[in-house]
Here is the input.
Amino acid sequence: MVLAMIFGGHLLPFGWLYKSKSYMYSSIIVTISVLIIGCTCSPDIIALFMLLYEIVFTGCFFIENKKLMQETQSK
Here is the structure.
């Protein structure tokens, strides 16, 4: 649980550095969700949540990157 919360917390500076909403929202969502899940469920559920969230996280980056590429090509 603690490692997952540290992972979530370290994303916030990247959100500021790269001006990425995916990083900022993920930082908040992961940290709070893992805290709640960790206090109520087994460690297996935390691992499953993080695995599924990483898939969603990657998809958000692909979408964000695609939009950024379209914006830079149109300029």
